[in-house]
Amino acid sequence: xxxxxxxxxxxxxxxxxxxxxxxxxxxxxxxxxQAAVGAAVVLALIVLSSAWALGAFDSKAEKKAAADVCVWTxxxxxxxxxxxxxxxxxxxxxxxxxxRAMTITTNQGGPITAELDLTSAPCAAASVAHLAxxxxxDNTKCxxxxxxGALRCGDPSGTGIGGPAYSFYDENVPSAPExxxxxxxxxxxxxxxxxxxxxxxxxxxxxxxxxFLVFFKDFNPAKPAYPIIGKVTGGLDVVEKIGALPTVDNxxxxxxxxxxxxVIQSLTVGEPTTAPTASPSAG
Length: 283
Prior knowledge:
The chain has three helices and 15 strands. The chain has 283 residues and is α+β, with helices and mostly antiparallel strands. The chain has two domains: 1-62; 73-273, Beta Barrel (Cyclophilin), CATH 2.40.100.10. Strands 5-15-3-4-12-10-11-7-6 form a nine-stranded antiparallel sheet. A two-stranded antiparallel sheet has the order 1-9. A two-stranded parallel sheet has the order 2-8. The longest helix is centred in the N-terminal third of the chain and has 52 residues, at 2-53. It starts with a helix and ends in a 10-residue tail after the last strand. Keywords: Isomerase.
């Protein structure tokens, strides 16, 4: 009998050991699963935190840096004392369509009004507007009445080499007209620079600053070089009157200096507009 009871106790003990072993194994598996889940959660949090830091969940994507519309090249004012440092215009966010009104008041009669072409010459318009905002042109002289039929203005020094301490590239230079057999523009073609045209002039060519031309008669060269920036919309009769003034030697042998001072008392530029404006007139 004792032997039978011993066997039953051993069997019961073995069964209990197996149950305990199974429970221990199950508990171990649970711990492993919990550890794996915890590690996955931690990894997910790390990934989400990194993504958040990098802006993946920003409600608005960051805008790309705006591209430059114009480039302003610094000029050495210490090497040319006729240059005047008044800062530079903006390079981005500039209007590239429509027009801006420009008003020139001189000592020679009523105001001369013009429109600057923002589509064809946005950088020239931006430069003129910037300089006007700094009163750069005020109380300066138009120092030449050119042999090409234009007033040359915008150089405070009156030397032809003055301007701001920056320059910018050519825009909107007319194409060369179709040549006749004599290598001059064929007759009947519209002029490259009709009367009333406003254009930049640079010294050296291509390094535009502040100087500009206002044509009081048609000009049609074989090789156009002046970038057109706008046209006169009013006061063309004043421009023609100034163009008829007698001229004297400018000190370098050229008889282009107005005998009577032509002073720009003020030059202002209005805000950009896309509305149609008046065509050039003689009034």
